[in-house]
Each structure stands twice: as structure tokens, then as C-alpha cells.
Write a structure and sequence with these properties.
Length: 392
């Protein structure tokens, strides 16, 4: 039994996710060397649509961290960071980045990672305070100890669990904060790039975002079917366009093809396991170094049909006449939904709209009924208290 559960490469069940590199060349086939265009290092919580509107090259250290973990090279960078004096209890994404930065400087360029593509040197940093405290200091450290580059950090606050979001005074208070926050981000990007934001271009980009998110939401809804047509090994790959490629036609095409495939699997009752016995919800970060663990669960007849982390939640309709206001409304509407579903499970976290959709007791009741859940897996990550649900 123990031999079967050791680290194994994940097996995906969908043709769409198996063809990701082919379907998403804008993400997987980016240049390895810095081009003339500025390169922004970004955190999740920064709207990908803005990056495209300003025609920026980008790197996402959080995604790079998952890649390093999946290829079993993250310990190399984490150990470098620990030798620099950073605690092993700090977020592993942070330590992976800081260790990479140190080796980048020592080797005067991206270190040799074999088939893994390294990150290019940043021109500036776009941080975000969404979800946890280390994210504030993460990019500050990169900008002061490693690369002396400008930094801007966004902080999209949403109301805590005990606020009445139907009160127009509260709504306007938070909307104004969100507007000022986004305006500050735009002003920073205009200063760094030397050009004004083209709102008409942003509007067309947002149309692609809305379409991509609609198809992705439909895919997630199809997982209510019994037996489930899709498991976590496909889900944790399919989040890439949602998190890093919104506004790209490639994202629309990817999720449209995925929707067609999953819908067909539902109609033909094609499951991810020969005999589905248990339907599970997954809380917390996945074990990126061992996604094959989900296949092991499937071999026992247990299928994860809903993941709390990175879940887009409800699709929200937006008026794109003013694309910047649409970005504000997207954040606000998702925060309101989270608040109404019982955000008392995370009272310490006000920014409920970016990383995961699981926020409350009311939502849990919905999930148990709609997804016909039999149980839950609460994955504890020692270096991530904010997302270790059930352990705090």
C-alpha cells in the first residue's frame, strides 16, 4: 500500500489539459530572455487584463514556484533562501523566489534548470496584499535585496464577514477604495511604460475575459454530475488561463474546448475512475510535488469533485462600457457573494475575492447538496496558515 502512494507523476484524464502546451503557446512558449518590452513580475491578484492592455511581458513567481515543486527542484532554491537567513516557516513560494533571485545574481542570469524555464530579470514588480501578510514583504525584499527595481503593491479590500453589503453606504465605501487602488496601479504602469492606458483596448480584452470565465464556470458546474467527468489532476492544470491569461483569445479557445469535452463525458457517463465510491471536496493548497496522489485516491474509488483553492466561484455579469469600473465591480461582486455565503469561517481575511471561492458555512451546505459530497480532505501546509482550512 505504501509503495503505491509514493510520489508519482499525475495522470490527466482530459485531452484538453493533455494538450495545454499546444493550446496555450502564449503562456508556455514565451521567450526566455528579456526583450525590449518591460518585464513585470506579478502576484496573483494583479489583473492579467491590465498587463495585456499595456503590452507587457510578465513572470508570475507563484506559478514558477508550483513548477519548481512539480519538477522537484524547489528544495534547491528554498535551501538557498534558508542559508540567507529566511525561516523555513515562511511561505515556500516566497523562499523559492528569494533563493532563485540569489542564484540568478550569482550566475548573472537564469540558472540552468534543465527543461524548466527560468524567470527573466524584472523591470518592475506588481505586488498584491490579497490573502496573506507575507505577500507585502515578499516583493519588497526582491526589490531591495536582489533587484533594485520599482514596486507597486495593490490591496483590494473587501468587507469583513459581519458587514451588511446590502447597505449602500458600505457598498460605496468599499467601491471607492477599490477604485483608488486600481487607479494607483494604472498610474504606476503608465509611469513605468511611458504610455497612457488605452481603455478601448482594455474593453476588448475584457470581453475575452468574460467569455473565458463563462466557459470555465460551466466546466466546473458539470462536475456536479455523477459519476464525475473530471478530477483534480486536470483542475490544477486548467487554472492557468483563469489566473494568468485572462483577456487572451487562447484562454477562450482552451476553456471552450474543455467545456465541449467535459460535457461529452457527462453525456456518455465517462468517469475518472472505474467505480466512483466517494465524492470529496479538497481544502487548501495542492501538493504540487505529488499531484499523482489524486490518482491514488481515484484508484480507491475516491474522486475530488470540488477544490476550494483557486476556484473562480460564480460567474458575474459585467457592464464593459467602462472597463476599469468593470474590474472594480468584478472584485466587489465576488466579495459580496463570499460575504453572503458565510465568510465567518475566515474572519481574519478581508480580501475574499482572489484566490479561492470557499469562504463560508452557507457555501459548504450548498456544496454538500449540489456536488453530492461524501467527505472532505483538509490539506495542511505548514508554511501557509491562511489557506490551511480547518487547521486555524
Amino acid at each position: 500500500m505504501s509503495t503505491e502512494s509514493e510520489t508519482k507523476r499525475a495522470v490527466r484524464h482530459l485531452e484538453t489539459t493533455a494538450r495545454m502546451k499546444e493550446l496555450l503557446p502564449g503562456f508556455f512558449a514565451r521567450p526566455t530572455e528579456k526583450e525590449e518590452r518591460p518585464v513585470a513580475w506579478c502576484m496573483v491578484g494583479v489583473p492579467p487584463e491590465l498587463l495585456k492592455a499595456f503590452e507587457l511581458e510578465w513572470e508570475w513567481p507563484e506559478n514558477f514556484g508550483t513548477l519548481c515543486a512539480s519538477k522537484l527542484i524547489a528544495p534547491r532554491f528554498i535551501e538557498i533562501a534558508e542559508r540567507e537567513g529566511y525561516s523555513a516557516d515562511i511561505c515556500s513560494y516566497v523562499n523559492n523566489t528569494l533563493g532563485y533571485c540569489r542564484q540568478f545574481l550569482e550566475e548573472d542570469g537564469s540558472p540552468d534548470l534543465g527543461k524548466v524555464r527560468g524567470m527573466r530579470k524584472p523591470s518592475f514588480l506588481l505586488g498584491s496584499g490579497v490573502t496573506c501578510e507575507p505577500r507585502y514583504k515578499w516583493f519588497q525584499t526582491v526589490a531591495t535585496r536582489y533587484f533594485q527595481v520599482p514596486i507597486h503593491s495593490t490591496d483590494p479590500l473587501a468587507p469583513p464577514w459581519d458587514q451588511d453589503t446590502a447597505d449602500p453606504r458600505i457598498e460605496e465605501h468599499y467601491l471607492e477604495q477599490l477604485r483608488r487602488d486600481l487607479q494607483g496601479q494604472v498610474a504606476f504602469l503608465e509611469g513605468q511604460t511611458g504610455k497612457k492606458l488605452d481603455t478601448e483596448r482594455l474593453k476588448s480584452i475584457m470581453k475575452y475575459s468574460q467569455e473565458a470565465l463563462w466557459y470555465w464556470h460551466q466546466v466546473l458546474q458539470l462536475r456536479k454530475a455523477v459519476p464525475s467527468p473530471m478530477g483534480s489532476t486536470d483542475y490544477f492544470m486548467a487554472i492557468i488561463p483563469q489566473m494568468y491569461m485572462l483577456g487572451e483569445p487562447e484562454a477562450v479557445n482552451f476553456y471552450r474546448q474543455m467545456y465541449d469535452e467535459v460535457k461529452e463525458r457527462v453525456e456518455k457517463r465517462i468517469s475518472v475512475t472505474d467505480q466512483e465510491k466517494y465524492r470529496l471536496v479538497w481544502f487548501g493548497l495542492p501538493p504540487w510535488f505529488n499531484l499523482g496522489m489524486f490518482n491514488y485516491l481515484e484508484s480507491l474509488g475516491a474522486v475530488v469533485v470540488y477544490e476550494s483553492i483557486y476556484n473562480m466561484g460564480d460567474w458575474v455579469d459585467l457592464d464593459l462600457a467602462n472597463p476599469l469600473e468593470a474590474l472594480v465591480q468584478r472584485t466587489w461582486k465576488k466579495a459580496v457573494i463570499a460575504n453572503q455565503r458565510g465568510a465567518e469561517t475566515r474572519p481574519e481575511t478581508c480580501e475574499l475575492s482572489a484566490v479561492g471561492n470557499f469562504t463560508g458555512s452557507n457555501l459548504l451546505e450548498e456544496l454538500v447538496e449540489d456536488f453530492k459530497l461524501d467527505g472532505a480532505v483538509l490539506h495542511q501546509t505548514r508554511s501557509c496558515r491562511a489557506l490551511s482550512f480547518g487547521h486555524i
